[in-house]
Amino acid sequence: MIVVLASRFDASAARLAERWRSHGARLLTPEGLSVRGWCHESGAVDRSTAVLDGEVVPLRSIDGVLTRLSGVSEDELPHIVPGERAYVSSEMTSFLVAWLSSLEGRVLNRPTPACLCGPNWGMEQWAHEATRVGFPIRPVRRLARAFGQAQTDVGRGQAEPAQADLRHVTLVGRRLFGRSIDETTERRVLRLSQATNVELLTMTLVREGGSTVFVGASPWVDVDRPEVADAILERWEVER
Hints:
By secondary structure, the chain is an alpha/beta fold. The protein has helices spanning about 10-20, 85-100, 125-130, 185-195, 225-240, and strands at about 1-5, 25-30, 50, 55-60, 65-70, 105-110, 140-145, 150-155, 165-170, 175-180, 200-210, 210-220. It is globular, with a radius of gyration of 20 Å.
C-alpha cells in the first residue's frame, strides 16, 4: 500500500493517487487525521494503525509514503471550529513528523522539524551545501531596506539568467530527468542528494563561463510528469 500525503487543494497529488490506484495507493489529507482508528506507538510499529479511506490498516502494510505537504495549515481544517484551528494544525504537524519518522526507509523525503517533505532551506543554505560537493554557484546577496520599512528587496550579485538558459533537473533516488547534463555535473547532483539526505529533488542549473553553475534546489518535484511518477513507484518496488 502506498500513501500520498497531501493538501486537500493539491490536484496533482489527487491525480497521482488515482494513477497509482492499481498499486493500492491512498490519498491522505490532514482532514483524514481527525477520525477514529489512528494509533501511533513510538517503537511499536506492529501495534500502530492508520486510517486510510475510512479503513483502519496496520502500519506494517504501508510500503511507501510520498509527502506533498510542508505542514498542516488552518485552511486544511474546515471541520475544526475556527478558534481551535491554529492549535490543531500545530498538533497535527507535530504528529506527522513523528509518524513519518517512524516509517524509516518507506518515506520520500524524510521529514524535518521545519518541513514534512524535506529541508525547508532558503537559497543561502542550498548554495552552501552545493559548494560542499563541488558546484560553482551564483553569488547570493540580500538587500534589506532601512529599519521600519516593511518591504525587503532580495537580489543576487549579478543579473538573473534568462529562463531559456536555465536547466531544471529532477532527481528520484539516483535517476535523473530533464535536460541532459555532463558527467561531472551528474556526479555533483548525486553527491548533493546524498549529502543532504534528499532523494526527491528539483535542481536549477545554468551554463556560465563554460561551467554548469548551481542556481537553486527544492525537495518538490513535478509528479504530473509520467516518467517521474513511475520512477517514484519503482523506488519502493526496488526496496521490497
